[in-house]
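Pipeline run #58 for the internal structure catalog. This entry was flagged by the ingest filter as a single-chain record with no existing model, so it goes straight to prediction. Upstream metadata was stripped on purpose; only the residue string is passed forward. Reviewer on rotation: M.T. Logging verbosity set to normal.
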Amino acid sequence: MTAALLRLNARTFASLRKHRNYRLFFGGQVVSLAGTWMQNIALAWFIIELTDSPLAVGGLAFARFAPFMFFGLFAGVIADRFDNRRLVIVTQVAQMAVSLLLTALAFSGWDSILAAYALALAGGVAMVFDAPGRQALTYQMVGRDELPNAIALNAGLFNGARIIGPAIAGVLIAAFGVGVCFAVNTVSFLAVLTALLLMRTTELFAVERSRERQTVLNGIREGIAYARREPKIRAALVILAVVSTISLNFHVILPLLVSETLEAGPEVLGVLGSAFGAGALVGALLTASLGRASWKALTAGLGGFSVGTLALAPLESAAAAAIVLVFAGVSFTLWISNTNATLQLTAPDELRGRVMSLFMFAFAGLAPLGGLFAGWLVEVGGTQLAFTVGGVTGLVMAMYAWTRRPRVAAAPAADEPAAARAA
């Protein structure tokens, strides 16, 4: 039993142990992502303070994620053409500039919802180019064998920050206002930028780039055509797009759950955000210990997340909501991490950026519509209706994922050697 636990622990942190560049990046992200979550909470609360409107919070989601709808597929072509480390440096600097401007807006006393939306939109543009570049850079830092492990650790890091960031943000907002959170996030970008600059480029895994120069539109068409041909990628993206649009609107519903249903303040919002993050962190460590992508784990994670979402609908207690959010967080990461790894391992090198841009488009590109839809549901039937619709939709898609299992299992990876396919 002891030996098995030691092997499990070794698998869980394999990418960090083996790859210096990944250790640097991971350390920088520890600081930066905590600041990002502080800003996410602070920006939502800023809009609530200005408007006290569920639709206005939905409008914030539209502004943040609209760039994924309009530029997401273009960003994948950029990621496949250019050096990913340099691309991420540029996008991180851009996001840092947006945080600095949000800080200035908050401390200026200029209560302009349009300015807040404009800066959220600018931050979204930076994120849409950052996402496929960062995903492709992860592959270069750790290689194919350790990629599922690194993706799970990235998810653990992201959700560990989700525990710390909202909790700190809730306290700081209550004591000093939202501007301090924006300022802390601005400074936090220095950590990840330092890590990127200290990387040894000679230790990055080489990837094949297409030598054929295509127009951007042709590059996008090629990525979409490939995704349509591959049953595994097609099914994973369809599931992700539907659930993300209808069910995954916590950034809209949680602030409204706190302010309207629970009639509480930013401290409770921070606690609930941290509860989801704690569960997601556990789910990430569980996924990292598995060491491989699994369609069964993807389906189980989606089903668990949907049950958790549905269970939130009737709750009027912050403590009960926190417990359910821990369970939903575990399931969420199990689903998303296995989806991410499945897509990256199936895609060939020259299309990985475009496949990951499709991942981000499915995950966030339709979020502007989903955010507005969630805000409307809360207006019509409260957070109870929004959680019910999201939970039921997720369960339907989990059943769809289960029915696709035989076909997905039979589909080989696109870059799998011909001899392996014939075996």
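catalog note: The chain is about 85% helix and 0% strand.
catalog note: The radius of gyration is 20 Å.
status: ready for reviewer M.T.
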